[in-house]
Amino acid sequence: xxxxxGGETGAEVSALKVEIEAVWxxxxxxxxLSEMDRGRARxxxxxxxxxLNAGRIRAATRGESGDWEVHPWVKRGILLGFRLGExxxxxxxxxxxxxxxxxxxxxxxxxxxxxxxxxxGTSIRDGVCLERGVTIMPPAFLNTGSFVGEGTMIDSHAxxxxxxQIGRRCHxxxxxxxxxVLEPVGALPVIIEDDVLIGGNCGxxxxxxxxxxxxxxxxxxLTGATPIYDxxxxxxxxxxxxxxxxxxxxAVVVPGSRLITSGPAREMGxxxxxxxxxKYRDEKTDASVQLEEFLR
Length: 296
Ligand SMILES: CC(C)(COP(=O)(O)OP(=O)(O)OC[C@H]1O[C@@H](n2cnc3c(N)ncnc32)[C@H](O)[C@@H]1OP(=O)(O)O)[C@@H](O)C(=O)NCCC(=O)NCCS
What we know:
It contains 5 helices and 26 strands. The chain has about 300 residues and is of the alpha/beta class. It is globular. The structure holds coenzyme A.
Protein backbone atom coordinates (compact mmCIF):
# COMPACT_ATOMS: atom_id res chain seq x y z
CA UNK A 1 0.00 0.00 0.00
CA UNK A 2 1.25 3.43 -0.79
CA UNK A 3 2.93 5.03 2.14
CA UNK A 4 1.70 7.80 4.22
CA UNK A 5 2.15 11.07 2.73
CA GLY A 6 -0.18 10.65 5.42
CA GLY A 7 -1.33 13.64 7.20
CA GLU A 8 1.67 14.21 9.36
CA THR A 9 4.35 15.22 6.86
CA GLY A 10 5.03 18.19 4.63
CA ALA A 11 4.78 21.86 5.48
CA GLU A 12 1.49 22.39 3.63
CA VAL A 13 -0.18 19.45 5.28
CA SER A 14 1.09 20.56 8.69
CA ALA A 15 -0.37 24.02 8.14
CA LEU A 16 -3.67 22.48 7.07
CA LYS A 17 -3.67 20.35 10.18
CA VAL A 18 -3.15 23.34 12.45
CA GLU A 19 -5.97 25.27 10.78
CA ILE A 20 -8.39 22.35 10.81
CA GLU A 21 -7.70 21.73 14.50
CA ALA A 22 -8.24 25.44 15.26
CA VAL A 23 -11.63 25.60 13.53
CA TRP A 24 -12.62 22.31 15.15
CA UNK A 25 -11.72 23.64 18.60
CA UNK A 26 -13.79 26.77 18.05
CA UNK A 27 -16.83 24.87 16.82
CA UNK A 28 -16.74 22.19 19.48
CA UNK A 29 -16.12 24.88 22.09
CA UNK A 30 -19.55 26.23 21.27
CA UNK A 31 -18.34 29.31 19.41
CA UNK A 32 -20.60 30.57 16.63
CA LEU A 33 -18.57 31.46 13.54
CA SER A 34 -19.18 34.80 11.82
CA GLU A 35 -20.21 34.65 8.16
CA MET A 36 -16.68 35.64 7.17
CA ASP A 37 -15.07 32.96 9.36
CA ARG A 38 -17.52 30.41 8.08
CA GLY A 39 -16.58 31.31 4.50
CA ARG A 40 -12.88 30.91 5.35
CA ALA A 41 -13.54 27.59 7.05
CA ARG A 42 -15.32 26.35 3.97
CA UNK A 43 -12.38 27.36 1.77
CA UNK A 44 -10.10 25.51 4.15
CA UNK A 45 -12.34 22.47 3.92
CA UNK A 46 -12.22 22.61 0.09
CA UNK A 47 -8.41 22.59 0.20
CA UNK A 48 -8.55 19.70 2.66
CA UNK A 49 -10.75 17.69 0.27
CA UNK A 50 -8.36 18.27 -2.64
CA UNK A 51 -5.63 16.67 -0.52
CA LEU A 52 -7.91 13.79 0.52
CA ASN A 53 -8.94 13.14 -3.09
CA ALA A 54 -5.28 13.03 -4.09
CA GLY A 55 -4.38 10.65 -1.24
CA ARG A 56 -1.82 13.11 0.12
CA ILE A 57 -3.64 12.99 3.42
CA ARG A 58 -5.30 9.87 4.75
CA ALA A 59 -7.31 8.92 7.82
CA ALA A 60 -4.79 6.19 8.63
CA THR A 61 -1.37 5.30 7.28
CA ARG A 62 1.02 2.43 7.72
CA GLY A 63 4.30 3.03 9.46
CA GLU A 64 7.56 1.31 8.60
CA SER A 65 7.01 -1.28 11.35
CA GLY A 66 3.81 -2.34 9.58
CA ASP A 67 1.61 -0.86 12.32
CA TRP A 68 -1.22 1.37 11.27
CA GLU A 69 -1.55 4.82 12.72
CA VAL A 70 -4.81 6.73 12.80
CA HIS A 71 -4.77 10.49 12.15
CA PRO A 72 -7.58 11.94 14.27
CA TRP A 73 -7.18 15.42 12.77
CA VAL A 74 -8.07 14.04 9.33
CA LYS A 75 -11.27 12.59 10.75
CA ARG A 76 -11.98 15.92 12.43
CA GLY A 77 -11.54 17.60 9.06
CA ILE A 78 -14.05 15.22 7.53
CA LEU A 79 -16.53 15.85 10.36
CA LEU A 80 -16.00 19.57 9.91
CA GLY A 81 -17.40 19.25 6.40
CA PHE A 82 -20.63 17.89 7.85
CA ARG A 83 -20.81 20.74 10.37
CA LEU A 84 -20.14 23.43 7.77
CA GLY A 85 -22.40 22.15 5.01
CA GLU A 86 -26.07 23.01 4.62
CA UNK A 87 -28.42 20.40 3.20
CA UNK A 88 -29.26 21.45 -0.35
CA UNK A 89 -31.44 20.18 -3.14
CA UNK A 90 -29.01 18.41 -5.47
CA UNK A 91 -31.62 16.70 -7.62
CA UNK A 92 -30.67 15.62 -11.13
CA UNK A 93 -34.16 16.33 -12.38
CA UNK A 94 -37.69 16.42 -11.06
CA UNK A 95 -37.73 12.64 -11.17
CA UNK A 96 -34.33 12.00 -9.60
CA UNK A 97 -34.47 13.86 -6.34
CA UNK A 98 -31.50 14.04 -3.96
CA UNK A 99 -30.81 16.14 -0.87
CA UNK A 100 -27.44 16.21 0.85
CA UNK A 101 -24.80 18.38 2.46
CA UNK A 102 -23.42 20.80 -0.12
CA UNK A 103 -19.91 20.13 1.22
CA UNK A 104 -20.16 16.48 0.16
CA UNK A 105 -21.17 16.34 -3.50
CA UNK A 106 -20.28 13.25 -5.51
CA UNK A 107 -16.63 12.96 -6.42
CA UNK A 108 -15.61 14.78 -9.56
CA UNK A 109 -13.63 12.42 -11.80
CA UNK A 110 -12.30 12.73 -15.35
CA UNK A 111 -10.87 10.20 -17.83
CA UNK A 112 -7.42 11.37 -16.79
CA UNK A 113 -7.96 9.84 -13.34
CA UNK A 114 -7.58 6.43 -14.98
CA UNK A 115 -10.39 4.70 -13.13
CA UNK A 116 -13.42 2.83 -14.46
CA UNK A 117 -16.79 3.62 -12.98
CA UNK A 118 -19.17 1.33 -14.83
CA UNK A 119 -22.52 3.08 -15.31
CA UNK A 120 -25.45 2.24 -13.08
CA GLY A 121 -26.13 3.66 -9.69
CA THR A 122 -22.68 3.94 -8.10
CA SER A 123 -22.12 6.84 -5.75
CA ILE A 124 -18.65 8.05 -4.81
CA ARG A 125 -18.58 10.89 -2.33
CA ASP A 126 -16.11 13.73 -2.50
CA GLY A 127 -13.08 13.05 -0.31
CA VAL A 128 -12.43 9.53 -1.65
CA CYS A 129 -9.01 8.75 -3.11
CA LEU A 130 -9.06 6.34 -6.07
CA GLU A 131 -5.67 5.33 -7.40
CA ARG A 132 -5.25 4.53 -11.08
CA GLY A 133 -6.66 1.29 -12.44
CA VAL A 134 -9.48 1.04 -9.89
CA THR A 135 -12.66 -0.51 -11.29
CA ILE A 136 -16.03 0.05 -9.67
CA MET A 137 -18.98 -2.10 -10.69
CA PRO A 138 -22.48 -0.77 -10.16
CA PRO A 139 -24.02 -0.13 -7.77
CA ALA A 140 -21.39 0.59 -5.14
CA PHE A 141 -21.16 3.26 -2.48
CA LEU A 142 -17.82 4.73 -1.43
CA ASN A 143 -18.03 7.04 1.54
CA THR A 144 -15.85 10.03 2.21
CA GLY A 145 -12.33 9.60 3.58
CA SER A 146 -11.93 6.15 2.08
CA PHE A 147 -8.86 5.22 0.03
CA VAL A 148 -8.73 2.60 -2.72
CA GLY A 149 -5.33 1.45 -4.00
CA GLU A 150 -4.21 0.92 -7.58
CA GLY A 151 -5.77 -1.90 -9.58
CA THR A 152 -8.42 -2.78 -7.00
CA MET A 153 -11.84 -4.03 -8.08
CA ILE A 154 -14.90 -2.92 -6.13
CA ASP A 155 -17.75 -5.18 -7.18
CA SER A 156 -21.51 -4.64 -7.33
CA HIS A 157 -23.40 -3.77 -4.16
CA ALA A 158 -20.17 -3.26 -2.23
CA UNK A 159 -19.92 -0.63 0.49
CA UNK A 160 -16.65 1.10 1.30
CA UNK A 161 -17.32 2.87 4.57
CA UNK A 162 -16.00 6.25 5.65
CA UNK A 163 -12.22 6.32 6.12
CA UNK A 164 -11.78 2.62 5.17
CA GLN A 165 -8.34 2.03 3.66
CA ILE A 166 -8.23 -0.51 0.83
CA GLY A 167 -4.90 -1.64 -0.60
CA ARG A 168 -3.68 -2.34 -4.10
CA ARG A 169 -4.85 -5.19 -6.36
CA CYS A 170 -7.60 -6.18 -3.95
CA HIS A 171 -10.94 -7.64 -4.93
CA UNK A 172 -13.86 -6.46 -2.85
CA UNK A 173 -16.50 -8.87 -4.10
CA UNK A 174 -20.19 -8.43 -4.71
CA UNK A 175 -22.20 -7.31 -1.68
CA UNK A 176 -19.14 -7.11 0.58
CA UNK A 177 -19.55 -4.50 3.29
CA UNK A 178 -16.45 -2.71 4.52
CA UNK A 179 -17.48 -0.75 7.57
CA UNK A 180 -16.59 2.84 8.19
CA VAL A 181 -15.72 4.81 11.27
CA LEU A 182 -15.65 8.55 11.80
CA GLU A 183 -16.31 8.68 15.51
CA PRO A 184 -14.66 8.27 17.90
CA VAL A 185 -12.01 10.16 15.96
CA GLY A 186 -9.18 8.11 17.49
CA ALA A 187 -10.64 4.78 16.36
CA LEU A 188 -8.85 2.92 13.59
CA PRO A 189 -10.90 2.49 10.41
CA VAL A 190 -11.17 -0.87 8.68
CA ILE A 191 -7.95 -1.64 6.82
CA ILE A 192 -7.59 -4.05 3.94
CA GLU A 193 -3.97 -4.42 2.88
CA ASP A 194 -2.61 -5.20 -0.61
CA ASP A 195 -3.63 -8.26 -2.65
CA VAL A 196 -6.52 -9.24 -0.38
CA LEU A 197 -9.68 -10.92 -1.59
CA ILE A 198 -12.84 -10.15 0.32
CA GLY A 199 -15.40 -12.71 -0.88
CA GLY A 200 -19.02 -12.09 -1.73
CA ASN A 201 -21.38 -11.08 1.08
CA CYS A 202 -18.61 -10.56 3.62
CA GLY A 203 -18.75 -7.91 6.32
CA UNK A 204 -15.60 -6.40 7.83
CA UNK A 205 -16.27 -3.89 10.57
CA UNK A 206 -14.92 -1.97 13.59
CA UNK A 207 -11.33 -1.28 12.69
CA UNK A 208 -10.43 -4.85 11.74
CA UNK A 209 -7.13 -5.15 9.85
CA UNK A 210 -6.90 -7.71 7.06
CA UNK A 211 -3.23 -8.25 6.35
CA UNK A 212 -1.66 -8.68 2.89
CA UNK A 213 -2.74 -11.55 0.63
CA UNK A 214 -5.38 -12.81 3.05
CA UNK A 215 -8.48 -14.39 1.53
CA UNK A 216 -11.77 -13.85 3.31
CA UNK A 217 -14.10 -16.55 2.00
CA UNK A 218 -17.63 -15.71 0.92
CA UNK A 219 -19.98 -14.94 3.77
CA UNK A 220 -17.45 -14.30 6.57
CA UNK A 221 -18.36 -11.55 9.03
CA LEU A 222 -15.69 -9.95 11.19
CA THR A 223 -16.44 -7.36 13.83
CA GLY A 224 -13.81 -6.16 16.26
CA ALA A 225 -15.22 -8.60 18.82
CA THR A 226 -15.18 -11.72 16.62
CA PRO A 227 -12.49 -14.26 17.57
CA ILE A 228 -10.86 -15.95 14.58
CA TYR A 229 -9.92 -19.60 15.02
CA ASP A 230 -6.68 -20.64 13.32
CA UNK A 231 -7.03 -24.35 12.58
CA UNK A 232 -3.53 -24.43 11.07
CA UNK A 233 -1.52 -22.87 13.89
CA UNK A 234 -3.88 -23.88 16.69
CA UNK A 235 -4.41 -20.38 17.99
CA UNK A 236 -7.17 -17.82 18.34
CA UNK A 237 -6.87 -14.19 17.23
CA UNK A 238 -8.77 -11.57 19.19
CA UNK A 239 -8.87 -7.83 19.58
CA UNK A 240 -6.74 -6.79 22.53
CA UNK A 241 -6.45 -3.63 24.58
CA UNK A 242 -5.20 -0.99 22.14
CA UNK A 243 -4.86 -3.47 19.27
CA UNK A 244 -7.58 -4.22 16.72
CA UNK A 245 -8.57 -7.65 15.45
CA UNK A 246 -6.12 -8.74 12.75
CA UNK A 247 -6.38 -11.39 10.07
CA UNK A 248 -2.83 -12.68 9.54
CA UNK A 249 -1.02 -12.31 6.22
CA UNK A 250 -2.08 -14.93 3.68
CA ALA A 251 -4.73 -16.51 5.92
CA VAL A 252 -7.69 -18.18 4.18
CA VAL A 253 -10.74 -17.60 6.38
CA VAL A 254 -14.07 -19.37 5.87
CA PRO A 255 -17.30 -19.22 7.86
CA GLY A 256 -17.62 -21.97 10.45
CA SER A 257 -19.04 -22.66 13.88
CA ARG A 258 -17.86 -23.86 17.27
CA LEU A 259 -19.62 -25.63 20.11
CA ILE A 260 -20.58 -23.60 23.13
CA THR A 261 -18.95 -25.50 25.97
CA SER A 262 -20.51 -23.97 29.07
CA GLY A 263 -23.80 -22.96 30.63
CA PRO A 264 -27.33 -23.64 29.42
CA ALA A 265 -26.23 -23.21 25.77
CA ARG A 266 -24.07 -26.31 26.18
CA GLU A 267 -27.00 -28.27 27.65
CA MET A 268 -29.03 -27.17 24.66
CA GLY A 269 -26.32 -28.36 22.24
CA UNK A 270 -25.88 -24.93 20.68
CA UNK A 271 -23.01 -23.78 18.58
CA UNK A 272 -22.03 -20.26 17.57
CA UNK A 273 -20.62 -18.67 14.43
CA UNK A 274 -16.83 -18.78 14.19
CA UNK A 275 -14.61 -17.70 11.30
CA UNK A 276 -11.94 -20.35 10.78
CA UNK A 277 -8.53 -20.14 9.12
CA UNK A 278 -8.52 -23.39 7.17
CA LYS A 279 -5.17 -22.85 5.48
CA TYR A 280 -2.64 -20.26 4.42
CA ARG A 281 -2.71 -19.14 0.84
CA ASP A 282 -1.21 -21.58 -1.65
CA GLU A 283 -1.25 -22.11 -5.43
CA LYS A 284 -4.74 -23.55 -5.29
CA THR A 285 -6.03 -20.48 -3.48
CA ASP A 286 -4.29 -18.25 -6.01
CA ALA A 287 -6.06 -20.14 -8.80
CA SER A 288 -9.40 -19.80 -6.99
CA VAL A 289 -9.11 -16.07 -6.54
CA GLN A 290 -7.21 -15.12 -9.68
CA LEU A 291 -8.40 -11.78 -10.84
CA GLU A 292 -9.84 -11.81 -14.29
CA GLU A 293 -7.25 -9.60 -16.01
CA PHE A 294 -9.28 -9.41 -19.23
CA LEU A 295 -12.04 -7.69 -17.30
CA ARG A 296 -9.75 -4.90 -16.14
C1 LIG B 1 -11.83 -19.44 0.33
C2 LIG B 1 -11.91 -19.82 -1.13
C3 LIG B 1 -11.15 -18.84 -1.98
C4 LIG B 1 -11.34 -21.22 -1.35
O1 LIG B 1 -9.93 -21.20 -1.18
P1 LIG B 1 -9.06 -22.49 -1.57
O2 LIG B 1 -7.66 -22.22 -1.19
O3 LIG B 1 -9.34 -22.86 -2.99
O4 LIG B 1 -9.69 -23.57 -0.58
P2 LIG B 1 -9.66 -25.17 -0.69
O5 LIG B 1 -10.60 -25.64 -1.75
O6 LIG B 1 -8.24 -25.65 -0.76
O7 LIG B 1 -10.31 -25.56 0.68
C5 LIG B 1 -9.60 -25.72 1.92
C6 LIG B 1 -10.59 -26.27 2.93
O8 LIG B 1 -11.55 -25.27 3.27
C7 LIG B 1 -12.87 -25.67 2.91
N1 LIG B 1 -13.52 -24.50 2.31
C8 LIG B 1 -13.07 -23.80 1.25
N2 LIG B 1 -13.87 -22.76 1.02
C9 LIG B 1 -14.85 -22.84 1.94
C10 LIG B 1 -15.98 -22.03 2.22
N3 LIG B 1 -16.25 -20.93 1.49
N4 LIG B 1 -16.79 -22.38 3.24
C11 LIG B 1 -16.50 -23.47 4.00
N5 LIG B 1 -15.44 -24.26 3.78
C12 LIG B 1 -14.63 -23.95 2.76
C13 LIG B 1 -12.68 -26.82 1.91
O9 LIG B 1 -13.74 -27.74 1.94
C14 LIG B 1 -11.40 -27.44 2.38
O10 LIG B 1 -11.63 -28.25 3.51
P3 LIG B 1 -11.32 -29.86 3.41
O11 LIG B 1 -9.86 -29.93 3.08
O12 LIG B 1 -11.69 -30.34 4.75
O13 LIG B 1 -12.19 -30.33 2.31
C15 LIG B 1 -13.38 -19.89 -1.62
O14 LIG B 1 -14.14 -20.79 -0.82
C16 LIG B 1 -14.08 -18.54 -1.57
O15 LIG B 1 -14.75 -18.19 -0.62
N6 LIG B 1 -13.91 -17.76 -2.66
C17 LIG B 1 -14.52 -16.45 -2.79
C18 LIG B 1 -15.69 -16.56 -3.76
C19 LIG B 1 -16.26 -15.20 -4.01
O16 LIG B 1 -16.82 -14.59 -3.12
N7 LIG B 1 -16.07 -14.68 -5.23
C20 LIG B 1 -16.46 -13.36 -5.56
C21 LIG B 1 -17.32 -13.28 -6.77
S1 LIG B 1 -17.98 -11.63 -6.95
